Amino acid sequence: MQRRHQRTALALLAAVSTAGSALTLSPAPAAAAGTAVKIAGTGKVVTGGTPLNARSAPSAGSSRTGTISNGATISIVCRTAGQFISGTVTNTGYWDRLADDSYVSDAYVQRREFPIPKCTAAASVPVVAGAWMLPVTAGLISGFRTVGRPAHDGVDLAATRNTPIRAVAAGTVIRVVCNVSKGSCDVDGSSALGGCGWYVEVQHEGNVVTRYCHLVRRPAVTVGQPVSRGAILGHVGTSGSSSGPHLHFEVHAGAPATRENAVSPITFFKARGLTIG
Fold first, then answer.
1. Spatial CA neighbour of 262 closest among 150, 176, 95
2. pTM for the whole thing?
3. Domain-terminating residue out of 105, 123, 141
4. Last residue within a domain, chosen from 106, 123, 140
């Protein structure tokens, strides 16, 4: 009896050792619904040399949010089913969501950690109240027309580069603009420049206009396009007059948006049950 138990233990140890030496894992069981989103593990990008495209959704047809170099280590939050991809590591329909809310195909990720929890919609979408929501989930780093910045017509939110920027309510895109005093909006800006970089304006019911500035690249929407609440307008960057990645966000009580009709986003959203800060 004792020898049989020893043989069983040795067999289990051999199986575990074999699994641990593998470069990829079989699909992990989905986490229970409601599992809190956190960094589940790390992985290594293996493409054979070319950079791996990070996407706004789990599909090669979705907009590209950036690239990750071959051999780079990534932090995986969760994973979800998406487009089936034949990659350098494996062939799979799973995609990994990263800490900046972008997605990469698991077919190009070498990892040992499991289980990777199933992504939940609530994990990546900012707080919603009624017809309105916040554009990103991030802390306040600069307020509206403060003593130190009396000409600051919006608020600065400390979202990281490539964080999706969402329409705060349903509306129509009325401006997609590159605004910089010198050079291009397709590169990082600086505090020595002037302008909002790549920015978007959306007009909502009641003639309210919201403006989203310093996007990392040309916005994902076009003028005249209707958008629903939560639609991704673009991604956080630092184009234009900016010293680092963040979202500069404005609210205007009228169209066109001017300095004269700019209102405090903090006050505006507080009246709608949402807190910026």
1. 150
2. 0.58
3. 123
4. 123
